[in-house]
Each structure stands twice: as structure tokens, then as C-alpha cells.
């Protein structure tokens, strides 16, 4: 997976997920909303035929938005692991 950082300042970050559309960008931006210090989290697709999505984050606390993204990814990873475990048990 290729990720291109488009902007990274003290409280704002924008990055592009190359060759990924709604699924991953939506999951990351939705998980970012679980962080109390996130003021804005969302994603956009410039064109439906271009398979790149841009995710933007704005922090209110002044902490590095990169840390918020990493924390959101860790929470998603944990949730996916739980889902896999529960699915394996249920699909016996």
C-alpha cells in the first residue's frame, strides 16, 4: 500500500491512500472520531474513476495528528483481530 503525505503541520495532516477508495479511508476517518482531540476527520475522492482517497485530520489539542492516526490504526487492528477470533468461533 502506498501512502503519500500531502500536508503535515502542528495540528493538521492530510494524506492520500493510493489505489484505495472508500473502504479503508472511511474506516480510518470514522475511527479518528473516537479520539476526543479530533476536530475534523474525513476523506474525499477527487473523481470516481481515480482510485485514490485523501484523508484529512485536524487536532484541537495541538498534539501531532500523526499520533492520532497511529492510535486509530491500532484500535482498528485490535477490532479486526477480535472480529476474526469471534468469526472463527461462530463459523465452526
Amino acid at each position: 500500500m502506498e501512502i503519500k503525505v500531502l500536508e503535515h503541520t502542528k495540528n493538521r495532516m492530510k494524506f492520500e491512500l493510493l489505489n484505495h477508495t472508500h473502504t479503508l479511508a472511511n474506516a480510518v476517518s470514522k475511527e479518528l472520531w473516537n479520539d476526543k482531540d479530533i476536530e475534523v476527520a474525513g476523506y474525499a475522492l477527487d473523481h470516481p474513476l481515480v482510485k485514490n482517497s485523501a484523508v484529512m485530520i485536524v487536532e484541537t489539542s495541538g498534539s501531532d495528528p500523526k499520533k492520532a492516526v497511529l492510535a486509530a490504526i491500532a484500535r482498528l487492528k485490535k477490532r479486526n483481530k477480535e472480529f476474526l477470533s469471534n468469526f472463527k468461533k461462530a463459523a465452526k
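DSSP finds two helices and four strands in the chain. Residues 2-90 form a domain with the Gyrase A; domain 2 fold (CATH 3.30.1360.10).
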